[in-house]
C-alpha cells in the first residue's frame, strides 16, 4: 500500500486532501490500485470511512466504476453490505455503471438480493438501466 492507501484505510481525509493538492504530488493517482486491486475508494469503504468515501465519490478525478481483483466496484461492495446511502450516492454519479458484473458474473442487484437487502433491491430496480432479468453465473 502507498501512503494514499494507508490514509484512506484510516479515514484521514485531511491527509488525502493534502496529498491531492500538494504541488509536489501533482498528478497523484487517486485511482491507484494496491496489490489486491483495491483503490483508495474501495479501501475507504471497506474500512467504514464514510466521510472519506463521500469526498472521493464527489471528486472529479475518481473513477467510481473501477473494479478490484475480484471484479467488484464500490457499488458491488455497498450493495452486498447493504449500504443504501452509498448505493444512492453512486446511482446519482455521472457515468456510473449500475449493471457491470464482477468476476463471478454477479451484478450489484444480485449481491443485494443474495444478502437480503430489499431496500437496495427496491432502489436499484427504480434505476432505468437495471433490469430484473439480468442473469448471474448460474442464470
From TrEMBL:
Keywords: ANK repeat, Repeat. InterPro entries: Ankyrin_rpt (IPR002110), Ankyrin_rpt-contain_sf (IPR036770). It comes from the Eukaryota. PROSITE patterns: ANK_REP_REGION, ANK_REPEAT. Pfam families: Ank (PF00023), Ank_2 (PF12796). ANK repeats lie at residues 36-59, 70-90, 104-125. This is Uncharacterized protein. It comes from Entomoneis paludosa.
